Amino acid sequence: MESHPYGWLSLMPPVVAIVLAIATRRAVLSLVVGIFCGALITTGGNPWSALYDTLEVHLWPTVIDPGKLRVFSFTLLMGAMIGVICRCGGMQGLIRLISPLAKSRRSGQLTTWGMGMIVFFDDYANTILLGSTLRPLCDRLKISREKLAYLVDSTAAPVAGLALISTWVAVEIDYVREGLENIPLVTDLNAVDLFIASIPYRFYVLMALVLVPLIAITGRDFGPMLKAERRRLRGAATEDPRLDAAAQLEDESTAELPQRWYNAVLPIVLTLGVVLWLLYSTGTQALASVQHEGPITLRAIMGKADSSFALQYGALAGLLLAWLLARVQRLLSDTELLVAAGRGARVVLPAIAILWSATALSRMTSNKSVAGESTQIAYQYQDHRLYTGAYLTGMIVGDTNNPQSGTAGRSVETTLKLLPTAVFLLAAVLSFSTGTSFGTMGILLPMVVALSHSLLSTRGPPIDPSEPILLATIGSVLAGAVFGDHCSPISDTTILSSQSCACDHIAHVVTQLPYALTVATGAVLFGTLPLGWGVPVWVLLIIQPLALFAMLRLVGRPVEIEERPGALP
């Protein structure tokens, strides 16, 4: 097996970017420095060649990528739509409509969680819609921006990854299918069945969705989030006064305008409707152009849909309707609407800048060419790609062609028992380092499906499709990728969550990290480890919420502290 061309150096760019971002709180600058460090590695230390590669090989191809341009366009259009809705008084009307459901901090957090569960079909749509829509409500209830960003982030990727109809599901199933195709022997295992059966084994994802309502109901927080919540209760909106500029959309005086809820709800509903219709339409057309095996199900249609196309034109439709409603009701002139749309678009510009540079860094650590071509021979694109995933995988797992090469002398049975935990941790490290859950799934799923099948084959064929170790290994990749994505400052959903909620990006990362680590620890101690030793999954799914509740009671502290006479401050 050919040795890795860069070894531990392939980890340096994401490490530099993450450490620098935390130290300076300047995400874009940190990401660009990380890209430049990676370019120095691939060019052999030549600074001029590295500068050229940074601009022409990494940053420029990323910004002109059609799919990424559509995501940028979607973000801008959504920002413009929210700007128009706020300026017309529609957002204030929507808040008045929702207010009966969210009269307190507890009900406000539960309402945010419930709405996040409803917008299940795409994580981008979830973060942009919920963050922008619920920010004024959470401000009124004195819920910190950090908490709102956490609520949004913890219901975006987890819900989209679990939903059987979403922009994630087909990609995940395809990766499982690739793994089955790597198994040399004929097998009766089915990718769709394995994907669905693995849902109860995605412990981190399920418990992340459970922790949110637990925190809301108990009224307890811990770590930096506790400080942020108490600071908000004392009247401080954000740590960084510069972020208050992002809230100018709500601060715009609309007292003279009627606050009609449908001026906000109708554009949002139309956006969701057009997105779903275009997902169905593009998916149907794609299936018609290829020879599709089996019945044409809704899941298959969603799998072939063009999600970035659907998101872009869904947001455009919503913006046009918001504009039309304002003009028909004579709320604002065309000039005033143009200014409002511009302000809304300007608010999301930082998100686009971070998303652009983070995507460039993520691609640098991948194994695909600038044109998106997969590697056919070992380290084919090492002149501009670092193969970070290949290095981490080889270091921890070993040679997948020899299932026992990474076991360090352990028996096959012991390896099988530890496999779900090892895969979960590997997926988390890889996703955290690269900032992409999709990329992590693409690297690991085909490999671990084949690896776990090879190890299980030592027990004797045939392998039961309901085998817990196999399902837990698949679930560990899908859950670990989301965990690392939640923790990573260079993750796209983490970036969009903080920006849509007008929260300092690093503050969001720092306040969310203890919660993500807590859930991950529970997923290992009360999930992957005992499952490897034969504990039934249904028992673990009962124990884990109880463990989270006990942890909150033990470690968490009430955010709202009653003032007692003579008590120390």
Total helix count?
A: 25
How far from one another are the termini? Answer: 63 Å
Pattern of helices and strands = HHHHHHHHHHHEHHHHHHHHHHHHHHE
Globally, the shape reads globular
* Weakly predicted, low-confidence segments: 244-253, 403-410, 562-569
Mean pLDDT: 79
Structural class: mainly alpha
Query: If strands are numbered along the chain, what order do they take across the biggest sheet?
Result: 1-2
Question: If you had to describe this structure to a student in words, what would you say it looks like?
Answer:
The protein is mainly α and 569 residues long. The protein has helices at 12-24, 27-42, 47-63, 66-87, 90-98, 105-118, 123-140, 145-162, 169-181, 191-197, 203-218, 224-233, 248-251, 262-288, 298-304, 307-328, 334-347, 349-364, 388-396, 412-434, 437-457, 468-487, 492-500, 505-532, 537-555; strands at residues 220-221, 557-558. The protein has a domain at 66-174 and 257-363. The protein is 69% helix and 1% strand. A two-stranded antiparallel sheet has the order 1-2. α2 packs across α3 and α20 packs antiparallel against α21. It is globular and about 75 Å long. Residues 244-253, 403-410 and 562-569 have low confidence and may be disordered.
Write a concise synopsis of the structure shown.
The chain is mainly α.
Secondary structure layout plus pairing:
Blueprint: H1 12-24, H2 27-42, H3 47-63, H4 66-87, H5 90-98, H6 105-118, H7 123-140, H8 145-162, H9 169-181, H10 191-197, H11 203-218, E1 220-221, H12 224-233, H13 248-251, H14 262-288, H15 298-304, H16 307-328, H17 334-347, H18 349-364, H19 388-396, H20 412-434, H21 437-457, H22 468-487, H23 492-500, H24 505-532, H25 537-555, E2 557-558
Antiparallel strand pairs: 1-2
Helix pairs in contact: 1-2, 2-3, 2-18, 3-18, 4-7, 4-16, 4-17, 4-18, 5-7, 5-14, 6-7, 6-8, 6-11, 7-8, 7-23, 8-11, 8-22, 8-23, 8-24, 9-10, 9-21, 11-24, 11-25, 14-15, 14-16, 18-23, 19-20, 20-21, 20-22, 20-24, 21-22, 22-24, 24-25
